[in-house]
């Protein structure tokens, strides 16, 4: 029987070396005809048990590392349970990430500073209401008001953002998407987001995530390192990442043995559904298939990238993603594009504590109402109420301080470091470029100035919540919320 051991210990590596030598000797014996079938089977079973044990130990240590990061006596018990349940992975999660070409390789293949990404927004705003089109001129701002856009566009925020960015990046022309078909797709996409009438996971959230994802991409200069197809997949992923969200957590689906959980075997239940449902829509209904002009190779690459990015919006992958990105930042190896893009979408997905207080406070209230509705449902079903889902006991301010301290602020610091590394890679590629028109390239690069507005906003939001906690402690009726 294999003996469990610490994968970080010297004994662990010596043991692996010993068993590798044993396997090599088995191969030698097989070549010489010195090994019987029974001896071969026995040795292979032993080797398999070693590998299985090592896998379990590695997963166990990963889970322990994740929970240690949120194990603080300063955090209320229920908030700790929520953080552990939502942002850590199950030990038996087998999913591996797919590797694509790196950012550095893309840069070296030639930087195209005159790419169509620099087009004006006007190309995509022909069917957008005039007031909405005017507001969308501010889409490159971190403080873009997605709520105002939704109001003045008559609840069409996602459609407007989609039109603006598809026009800006010239996707309609590049991939021969008829405007009528794209508009039909956007209408159907918004319907999917409205399917369950969610307070938080709705099409306004999707529009907000898409605008934020666009901001991060344009700020880092990574847009210059992507192929047109990768850029298309990135923006598309942000738009569809919560398509037909049920308004419940993955944990709820697993605990209640929902149809979705049974269909997706308890693994990233919602994320699998989002990706599956949107591709099924385009596959089954040609009037919504905006990908029909892609070649088979383009479609396969596009689909692989979208599925990977959407699956990485599963919050249980949070700590694993942060760890991977930290390694990429400090490593001399080239940056993996898929991991970088997935992380930027993940950051965009939970970035509301990094937005100005009115936006953050509104998003928080909408998210908590969605949690409370799930808690109400769990009570009627007679199953345990999930953490932060009991509207009678939850302290919203405590939960947000913990969310900022343990999840959002560390994540956005890593995001800043990643953006800096990407910009550094871009500048290095420029220096080594053979292009003679250096003045043109230098002028283009000069527009990228690493902006980190969240470094000021996040501490301010934390202070607002802590002030509210102090008010609660001093007032028995402290439920008015910070102003």
From TrEMBL:
Cofactor binding note from Swiss-Prot or TrEMBL: Binds 2 divalent metal cations per subunit. Site 1 may preferentially bind zinc ions, while site 2 has a preference for magnesium and/or manganese ions.
PROSITE patterns given in the database record: PDEASE_I_1, PDEASE_I_2
MF (Gene Ontology): 3',5'-cyclic-nucleotide phosphodiesterase activity; metal ion binding
Keyword Metal-binding: yes
Name used for this protein in its record: Phosphodiesterase
Cofactor (UniProt): a divalent metal cation
Example GO BP: signal transduction
Superkingdom of this protein's organism: Eukaryota
InterPro entries hit by this protein: HD/PDEase_dom (IPR003607), PDE1_N (IPR013706), PDEase (IPR023088), PDEase_catalytic_dom (IPR002073), PDEase_catalytic_dom_sf (IPR036971), PDEase_CS (IPR023174)
SUPFAM superfamilies tied to this protein: HD-domain/PDEase-like
Start and end residues of each PDEase domain: 124-472
Entry binding sites for Zn(2+) 2: 242
Residues given in the record as AMP binding sites: 201-205, 242, 349, 400
Record EC number: 3.1.4.-
Family: Belongs to the cyclic nucleotide phosphodiesterase family.
